[in-house]
Amino acid sequence: ERRTPRRATAQPSPASTPRPPSMCAALCRAHVVAAAAPLTRRRQVASRGKAPALVSAKRTTRSLVMARSALRNPEEVTSKAPTPSAISDTATVVLFDFDGTLGDTETCAMEVAFWELAPYFPNVLAEDLTPQRMKEFIRLNAGKAFELMFDRVESDRAAVGLPPIEEVRSRFQEDFDIIQVVNSNRAALGLQPFEMVREDHASILDKARDETLVALTALAKPNDGVIKALNFLKISGFKYAVSTTSPKPRVPVCIETARLTDFFPDEKVHSGFSDFDPPKYKPAPDVYVKAAAEEEVPVDNCIAVEDSVSGVGSAANAKIGLIVGYVGGSHIPYDRREEQAKALMKGGKSIDRRGADIVITDMTDLPTVANFFLDLKLDCGDDEQCLARPYDFSALGPSFVDKIYTPEICGAMPEAEDVNPR
């Protein structure tokens, strides 16, 4: 009778022993970019008169460096990823706007502004201060400096013959019923009643600045997907910083509350309000030029991430290499995302009418776009034709998590309304 020979049971050798979970996870993280953009992917540049090119050898070296780093220190891969300057000739920095882009702070800050100014709106009764009116105020003013909103209310009051705000404030002449509505909404923001803090500030501008800081200290949080995107960018070797109009210490405090300090220490925060005298508000290019200089990277090697037309204008006026619009913040209604995306791409506040090169709705799509731009810079070198806009993102389509917008997808956009004007 034929017997089937028994198979010998091999004892596991040290080489075949499964890696600890932390090392496996580190390897997966280190190779995430290579998986998203395999070496067989060819860049679609034929339409520009160039033959398709393989992803560069420098890019291959980049992935190997990341993998080796993960093998040596799997538990530290997210904190000690190699910098672009260590693995390529082209350093790339991602420069973020803060309010409404990194931080889900726009709505909170605008609610504070609304209730600071509500007692002084001309020809407004207590029953007019509805949630819908506040939403419309936020839509029209999100991202604007409070000083600009204050000036608008002052001009509206002057147009109907009402005295200046500070005169009304100093004489305690605010409407009692309006103050009751204001106080109930101030409480929801963690602010004290109107009467208790009236004399704590020399002006309503100082009061608004301090109370915005109080509210955001308690309520600031990152936008969905931000921390995941930052970790992927760090693993990929990108540096990043904040380029904002908002003042210090407000932004650093929000960063701390949102638990983003490990990504953005104080020296990585650049403010158009606080770092210049007089302040340089977007769409002026100054804050982007400063951030690029501090990172020792040419502006055309930088990526800007913005949620507002004035922010896109600032990046365009600074000649930033890639401008990424973002419409996933809570201050942009879901049904108006496409409208805002079109406004960002229109370039209404850019000197040369340049708009966003691409608009994302999910922040976790940013690493895909950033790596595309780095590949393009590495492959094209100084070839201006290869780097000419519009960029062709078509090969990345399957890699995106959520909907994206490009000028090619949206077509002509001459009549787009800015949902988030600044």
TrEMBL record:
An annotated Gene Ontology molecular function: metal ion binding
Signal peptide coordinates: none
Region (Disordered): 1-21
UniProt KW Ribosomal protein keyword: no
Pfam families membership: Hydrolase
InterPro entries listed in its UniProt record: Beta-PGM-like, HAD-like_sf, HAD_sf
Keyword terms of this UniProt record: Carbohydrate metabolism, Magnesium, Metal-binding
PANTHER family found in the cross-reference section: 6-PHOSPHOGLUCONATE PHOSPHATASE, HEXITOL PHOSPHATASE B
Protein's UniProt name: Uncharacterized protein
